[in-house]
Design a protein that fits this description.
heterotrimer; A alpha/beta (515); B mainly alpha (350); C mainly alpha (312); A: 515 residues; 6-stranded mixed sheet; 22 strands; B: 350 residues; mainly alpha; ABC transporter involved in vitamin B12 uptake, BtuC; two-stranded antiparallel ribbon; 1% strand
């Protein structure tokens, strides 16, 4: 392709303290293309695009837009140069309307009263052009994820950007919505835009991109047009030498066997569980399911369909309105969270920043959270710091948590290492049942493999797990059965032999109800 | 958290101690420098002012005794603030709790003046602690049940306490001979045993030091202390992992109330032997400053409290002898706090 | 009790509402960007002291009010600088500023006035009757025959309502307190909004303090604020952080204050100390009811760090 590059990134370096996120990366974006930015977690894809969008300042390197070197010190600068970004986690103000969210930050000089009529008309026009239907007056917090994403995209389009960066846009979409998104992207490119598509999913790249660049460990590995790219090369680029592709769960394509059927009673039995959510509406409606020893049960569903409320009700972090929960045959309704956890349940929450760890104390404090009352860490209310220190050091070693030591402040841990910490805590507690929400969020590919290995080892030892995940691929890979949550009800459950992505997608979007 | 960091990083050598002390020393020096410039510009004698502030406590046995007398309520007020603070809760009601604690102790001492000391004194102190806890009950319950911010509720209770002490000392047990709202004296059995007679120094000092040592052990080495610290670090994560956060908030605030109430009871039984309006002095404010400067380090807390007591004594002397308003010294204290916090920022940047 | 008593009472309430309104609106404005000011009591006392001294030394109430606004603005700016820019904890800095403001207020008075046999007095604010409206029966004396600061606080509340809900700048400001990351990503300057809002908020709080010596006795005393600064915080919550409900709420608190101070002891057979606790107990009671449904800016009290990997 001999076209002059629309955007050129040269030698971009960025470090956070000791951690090198980008070690001199080059990237070129051509006009009218969908350019895939592929790599595992921690590869540096989001960091690189955050630099381009002005959210991060690079330590070194040059950015050229339309042939001229530019300084991008803030998102406003980026927008001035025609660059827009749609983040993985939507940046929207729940109370505001769609229109208000979209126009925020633009010059709003209507006087004396702000009416936004012209803005609404423009939004409607853009909606139609790119196939992104929204109701300009609706309040954003009431909208489903797929529509909220359209609002995010319209935010950029409204500002007249012609370079659009999308960060893992398919995370919260059903397979059908993903297809619709891809159609919209094609429409954008046909009308003269360029798109950078950040993802860790090879399948998506192959489906919608024109070219693909692979990043790994903050380095640029390769760039190739899709027609010429061979999947194996791309995968090798993503994982490098760290993972033996033949042994890899993610890439070798071998299928796991289902857990054998068992006569034992379920280790978790939930009947008619209803949990209230925001604003008096039931977030979980009469959910019933069982988990057998040695089984991995997955919960699929777009985020916000009751997953969090379900797990929190099981642990009594949130009060259930109705229903019965039997843990190893015992009715745990009314038990304290501490009692439930001590009874053999381990929990890895979804939101690690708010629920998972304590940044202002040490790594050791974090690692014993939940076990602080039991031996060997404490005896009769008094802590044994030497045992704690030793135990923590051991976990740091085993689970490969990158930190200076148990006494180091947890705030210095990167996202991936916080996840490893949470996994270390949950897996070492020795429980019958693991409840994990987005188990491998933020982990790079070798770590993901390692966690999957441990999980399967647990399964082989007869322990169970409930995995809630946004990532359908992960569930399809690991679970024996997958239940789909839609609007708080279990829309259907599929057994491993019957796994079908599009069937699950239909259940996830409420298109059908499966018995 | 700072306490536990100390124990974790076992083998903290002299160099580590110096590294940690240095920011505090620089902060103190800088605060004095700033205020020194100001009072110099106003025409006062700066070196004399400094020596008055810093050394009045040590110039006479009386000065030292006075400093130690102030040290007791300051230390307890600081603890009443820092223990809930570990869990992330702000107890700004220390003076109200002090007042009701003193009132309760005085009540016991006035109503049962003939009981022997081994009975009356503990009873009075106990009454003070219970009163302090009760005074905290409202705000703690509002927090527990309705999640209402405790900063406001504890502070409002202070104002209510002011009216209470006024009522008690002018209507219930007033001493008609006094020119200022004061009660009649408490029975001799409620007096604190004295460590020294001349200059007067009561054994509340021992009690306070004991409690401070207990707090240090408790915070650094017990499971309960761990749960407090962890709750303060991230209440939501603590909750999710089984800690009963709301009960912890409640308990930590009550403990704060107990200690503040005790400080009032000690003032009445050890210092004044009666209830006197204004006995809360500026202990709450200074206690908060001490707590904030010490920043979670319960080993350092008594030292910071002593230093502030020295400064407080120096402040009155400053006004008396050099006619420089005592508030200058409070500005110094405020600046020390700001500079200590700034040193945090600088260390972060490295 | 006849009609003139009621009118008299209502007049006093409107007069008393001003410091609550101003301080609470100042709290609200900063709070809407996420800056939770808890130093109000200190800033109000400082404003009272500086306002008094300015009026006394330069012979004009206007000078005092101006100086009080400057002092309050500086404290507001300090709050946002230490928290937004240096990322220190908002409550800790708020308490430190409360302490310093308190000390400064007494310090300055002692330095410039010192100890005197008769405390110096400044003239109080003049009553200005609104043309036409001032002549109305009942409403006239209650609402339209006051000093200009009363009118100013009411107009200010209206202005804030209009600003927050009907202008683009108001939309941006509200966004900063709801989701600073979203606002930042769209080019809104979060730090600027916080500095500006906190500064103006501080100015209003300083003004509220200056009003106190200028309205009743003309003298400055040490505890002149009597907890109004703290109550202003509760008022901001009670008003749902909206200017119109804050105005309504401040009338309520003013009424409680007037009641507690003016009702004669003999009338009720209750000790006057108990009556004086009324404002504080009422505040707590009100908070219990108001908090249930109250909305507050989502990022109230939280600092925002664009490059932070540990913030929301």
């Amino acid at each position: 392709m001999a076209q002059p590059a629309l955007v050129e990134l040269k030698g971009i370096q960025k470090s956070f303290g000791q951690v090198v996120a980008l070690g001199g990366v080059d990237l070129g974006l051509a006009p009218r293309e969908i350019h895939g930015l592929l790599g595992g977690n921690g590869a540096g894809k989001t960091t690189l695009m955050n630099v381009l969008y002005g959210l991060y300042r690079p330590d070194a390197g040059e950015i050229r837009v339309r042939g001229r070197p530019v300084e991008i010190g803030s998102p406003s600068d980026a927008i001035t140069h025609g660059i827009g970004m749609v983040h993985q986690h939507f940046l929207q103000i729940g109370d505001f309307s769609v229109t208000q969210n979209i126009v925020l930050g633009t010059a709003l000089r209507e006087f004396p009263v702000l009416r936004l009529d012209a803005a609404r008309r423009r939004i409607a026009e853009l909606s139609g052009r790119f196939g992104l239907e929204v109701d300009p007056k609706a309040s954003v917090e009431e909208l489903p994820m797929g529509v909220r994403q359209r609002v995010e995209i319209l935010k950029a389009l409204y500002r007249g950007v012609d370079i659009l960066i999308l960060d893992e846009p398919t995370t919260n979409l059903t397979p059908q919505e993903v297809d619709r998104l891809f159609d919209s992207l094609r429409a954008m490119v046909d009308q003269g835009m360029s798109v950078v598509f950040i993802t860790h999913k090879l399948r998506e790249v192959m489906k919608v991109c024109d070219r693909v660049s692979v990043l790994r460990d903050g380095q640029h590995i390769l760039t190739a047009p899709i027609g010429e790219a061979d999947e194996g090369t791309l995968v090798a680029g993503m994982v490098g030498e760290q993972v033996d592709l033949r042994e890899s769960l993610l890439f070798s394509g071998t299928d796991l066997e289902s857990a054998p059927a068992t006569d034992e009673s379920p280790c978790l039995e939930v009947t008619g569980l209803s949990v209230p959510g925001e604003g008096g509406v039931l977030a979980v409606q009469e959910a019933s399911f069982q988990v057998w020893p040695g089984e991995i049960l997955g919960f699929a569903g777009v985020a916000g369909n009751g997953q969090r409320e379900l797990v929190e009700a099981l642990l009594n972090i949130r009060e259930a309105a109705a229903g019965r929960v039997l843990l190893a045959g015992e009715d745990i309704r009314g038990w304290s969270t501490n009692a439930i956890l001590s009874h053999g349940v381990a929990y890895i929450p979804e939101d690690r920043v708010s629920d998972g760890y304590l940044p202002t104390v040490t790594v050791a404090h974090n690692l014993i959270l939940g076990s602080q009352r039991s031996q060997p860490y404490a005896r009769r209310g008094v802590l044994a710091w030497d045992h704690i220190h030793r135990g923590a050091a051991g976990l740091i070693e085993t689970y490969n948590i990158q930190t200076q030591g148990p006494g180091d402040l947890a705030a210095y841990l990167s996202g991936g290492n916080v996840q490893r910490l949470m996994i270390a805590r949950a897996f070492s507690g020795g429980g019958q049942l693991l409840l994990a929400h987005n188990l491998t969020s933020g982990l790079d590919i070798p770590s993901v493999e390692s966690v999957y290995d441990r999980l399967l080892a647990r399964r082989a030892a007869g322990l169970s797990a409930v995995l809630l995940s946004d990532d359908l691929d992960e569930l399809l890979l690991l679970c024996d059965r997958i239940a789909v949550l839609y609007r708080g009800s279990i829309a259907g459950t599929l057994k491993r032999p019957d796994f079908d992505r599009y069937q699950l997608g239909r259940l996830m979007s409420g298109a059908i109800a499966h018995g | 958290m700072a306490d536990q960091a100390v124990t974790l990083q076992a083998g903290a050598g002299v160099r580590q101690l110096r590294d940690r002390l240095l920011p505090y020393l620089i902060a103190v020096a800088a605060a004095f420098a700033v205020v020194g410039v100001v009072i110099g510009v106003m025409g006062f004698n700066v070196p004399r002012a400094f020596t008055t502030i810093l050394f009045t406590s040590f110039r006479s046995p009386n000065g030292l005794a006075q400093t130690l007398s102030k040290f007791v309520p300051l230390l307890l007020q600081a603890l009443a603030f820092t223990l809930p603070l570990a869990a992330g809760k702000f107890n700004i009601g220390g003076e109200g709790q002090l007042i009701v604690g003193g009132t309760a102790a005085a009540a016991v001492g006035i109503l049962f003046p003939d009981l022997p000391q081994p009975v009356l004194l503990p009873l009075a102190l106990l009454a003070g602690m219970i009163a302090g806890a009760l005074w905290m009950l409202g705000p703690a319950w509002l927090l527990y049940r309705f999640r209402i911010n405790e900063i406001l509720t504890t502070v409002l209770m202070n104002f209510v306490a002011f009216e209470l002490i006024n009522f008690a000392s002018t209507e219930i047990w007033p001493d008609p001979a006094a020119g200022h709202p004061t009660t009649v004296p408490i029975g001799a059995g409620a007096h604190m045993p004295m460590l020294l007679q001349q200059p007067p120094l009561h054994s509340g000092l021992l009690l306070a030091l004991l409690i401070a040592a207990g707090a240090y052990f408790f915070m650094g080495r017990t499971t309960f202390g761990y749960e407090l610290v962890v709750t303060g670090a991230n209440p939501r994560a603590a909750r999710v992992h089984g800690i009963n956060v709301r009960a912890l908030f409640f308990a930590s605030l009550l403990v704060g109330g107990v200690l503040a109430g005790l400080s009032g009871a000690i003032e009445v039984t050890g210092n004044y032997h009666r209830l006197i309006e204004g006995l809360q002095s500026n202990f709450l404010l200074l206690g908060i400053i001490i707590g904030l400067i010490a920043r979670g380090n319960h080993l350092a807390l008594p030292f910071v409290a002593f230093f502030i007591a020295v400064l407080d004594v120096g402040a009155s002397a400053l006004q008396r002898t050099l006619a420089i308003p005592s508030e200058m010294v409070f500005i110094v204290m405020g600046l020390i706090l700001i500079f200590v916090l700034l040193s945090d920022v600088i260390q972060r940047r490295r | 009790m006849d009609i003139s008593d009621v009118v008299g009472f209502a007049r006093l309430v409107v007069l008393a509402m001003v410091p609550y309104t101003l301080a609470a609106q100042g709290t609200m404005l900063a709070g809407r960007t996420g800056v939770f000011n808890v130093a109000q009591e200190g800033i109000m006392l400082l404003g009272a002291s500086v306002g008094f001294l300015g009026a006394y030394l330069f012979d004009g109430l206007g000078y005092g009010l101006l100086l009080a606004m400057i002092a309050g603005g500086l404290f507001g700016l300090a709050l946002s600088y230490f928290t937004t820019t240096l990322k220190l904890d908002q409550f800790v800095i708020g308490l430190a500023l409360f302490f310093i403001g308190l000390a400064l207020s007494t310090l300055l008075y002692k330095l410039f006035v010192g100890v005197t046999l008769e405390p110096p007095i400044i003239p109080t604010l003049q009553r200005v009757s609104v043309p036409l409206l001032g002549g109305l029966p009942l409403l006239g004396p209650i609402l339209f025959q006051h000093n200009w600061m009363v009118y100013a606080s009411i107009l200010l509340s209206a202005l804030l309502y209009y600003f927050l809900y009907h202008t683009g700048a108001g939309l941006e400001l509200r966004a900063v307190g709801e989701n600073p990351k979203a606002a930042d990503s769209l080019g809104v300057n979060v730090a600027w909004q916080r500095h500006l809002a906190s500064m103006i908020g501080g100015m209003l709080i300083g003004l509220a303090g200056a009003y106190l010596p200028m309205v009743y006795t003309g003298a400055f005393t040490a505890g002149i604020a009597r907890g109004r600064g703290w109550i202003a915080i509760a008022l901001a919550f009670f008003g749902g952080w909206t200017p119109h409900w804050i105005l309504v709420g401040s009338l309520f608190f003013a009424a409680v204050e007037v009641l507690s101070l003016r009702v004669q002891i003999g009338d009720l057979g209750l000790p006057h100390q108990l009556l004086r606790t009324l404002p504080y107990l009422a505040t707590m009671a009100l908070m219990t009811f108001a908090f249930r449904g109250a909305k507050q800016p989502r990022f109230l009290g939280l600092n925002y760090d664009r490059e932070s990997r540990t913030s929301r």
